[in-house]
Specification:
The protein has about 180 residues and is mostly helical. The protein has eight helices and four strands. Helix 7 runs antiparallel to helix 8.
């Protein structure tokens, strides 16, 4: 990624950094300060290292989502690194707006994960607004902790919605049979 930015877009390599280079909080703070001064133009980082508690917004013009998180709050936190008070460039030159670019691949796990994010956010919004009905839909335990079974991976990667529906029904049957035995 860095090589492509240097070779194709002629961005000096010293202006492209990775937050993982920082071995301690002091180094991380120095890198964020360099970003805010404009000494660093592009900073890469994971949600855990760059997505929360980092105030590097002063000159941010875009957030690039290179992967799809499992939780809506992670997406919100990532975007919040640039879309926030104190962004001088957005305020002065971009009508107080910051671009959010999401990279995703059709017919891949990306669409599944975004659908999962959507359903989770709907549920969260229902809880926050107290509009949750007496019956709720459990989308199953397909997240970063429990993962998906292989048939679900095959269904998602194939792009065949019938296979995905079959995988969900198989999982539901297994759950019901387990409950019946108990």
């Amino acid at each position: 990624m860095k090589r492509k930015l240097v070779e194709d877009y002629h961005i000096p390599s010293y202006e492209i950094r990775f937050i993982q280079e920082c071995k301690n909080e002091k180094a991380k703070k120095a890198m964020v300060e360099a970003m805010n001064r404009g000494d660093i133009r592009i900073i890469f980082g994971s949600t855990s290292m760059l997505g929360t508690g980092v105030n590097a917004q002063q000159r941010a013009v875009a957030v690039h989502q290179l992967d799809t998180p499992w939780r809506p709050s992670d997406l919100e936190q990532r975007n919040g690194r640039a879309i926030r008070k104190g962004n001088m460039v957005a305020k002065e030159f971009a009508d107080n707006k910051v671009d959010v670019i999401i990279y995703a691949v059709e017919r891949s796990l990306d669409s599944y994960k975004f659908n999962l994010l959507h359903n989770k956010q709907l549920f969260i919004n229902q809880l926050k607004t107290n509009t949750l009905g007496s019956r709720t839909i459990d989308e199953g335990s397909m997240d970063e902790d429990s993962g998906m079974n292989f048939s679900e991976y095959v269904a998602v990667l194939s792009g065949n919605t019938d296979l995905l529906e079959k995988a969900k029904l198989d999982k539901k049957i297994a759950t019901l049979e387990s409950e019946r035995k108990n």
